[in-house]
Amino acid sequence: MSPSWLIPLMLATAFFAYLIKGVSGFGPALFLIPLLSLFFPASQAILLSTFLDMCLGFILFLMVRKRIDWKMIIPLTVLFFIGTTIGARLLPLLAVDVLKKIIGVIVIVFLVLLQMEGKSSVARENKQAGLAGLTIALLAGFTGGLTGISGPLIVLYMKFRHTKVYFRDQLIFLFFAGAVWRFLVYSYSGLRLEFFPPIIALTLGAAIIGMLIGNRLHWRIGEAQFNILISFLLLLPAVNLIFFS
């Protein structure tokens, strides 16, 4: 591919990735990092994705801040960060490839359960994290520290227990906080964005437009359609973990 196509590709990818983020509250890294890693160092793709998540996560957080359930989400966030730290420290000692495949199988099984559960008309709304939620948050952080994949476990847990608006609002804060934490860790480790500032600004602008459109679309889709979207977004990393890790 000619280098002249790289900037339009970055803008289109950022637009689509954050369109998904605006609708669902998560998911841009599933598209942004794999594609950008084909043309740029993986560390730069991850750092750019984290930077965008931090900036756009803050905008989304301002939109939903009055609906954040602090009593529920703060304990989950703390356990999420603790798990990430533990997983990162154990990374050299464990068979990560095997763990990735196990996570992929678990995610696919739960996706099937999510679709079966989605056919029920019974509303779910349990706003207490409880021991199960704290354990899932710890495990999600732990797998994230080991494999770089933390979203599926916590997303599935939240989706089983909550309707789409509550689910999305809490994940917006969780992943915004996670992005800030990761960016601070990367900066402390000496990593810096090496893209030209105008390219970063253009990519950020495309991402903001996509996110704002996605935010409007969120209110136009029903619970069943939302479940299908979540399943699709989680299926991608699950298949990648099983067959390509």
Can you offer a commentary on this structure?
This protein has 245 residues and is mainly α. It has one domain (3-243). It has helices at 6-24, 28-36, 42-64, 70-90, 96-118, 130-147, 151-161, 164-188, 197-218, 223-243. Mean pLDDT is 79; it is low at 119-123.
- Beta strand count: 0
Helix fraction by DSSP (H/I, runs of at least 4): over 70%
Radius of gyration: 17 Å
What is the domain tally? 1
Number of helices: 10
The biggest beta sheet reads: none
The mean pLDDT is 79
Structural class: mainly alpha
User: What are the secondary-structure elements, in order, as H or E?
Assistant: HHHHHHHHHH
Principal-axis shape? globular
Task: Please give the alpha-carbon distance between the first and last residues.
Answer: 25 Å
Poorly predicted residue ranges: 119-123
Q: Give the amount of beta strand, in percent.
A: under 5%
Short structural summary:
The protein is mainly α. The chain is 78% helix and 0% strand. It has helices at residues 6-24, 28-36, 42-64, 70-90, 96-118, 130-147, 151-161, 164-188, 197-218, 223-243.
Topology of this structure?
Blueprint: H1 6-24, H2 28-36, H3 42-64, H4 70-90, H5 96-118, H6 130-147, H7 151-161, H8 164-188, H9 197-218, H10 223-243
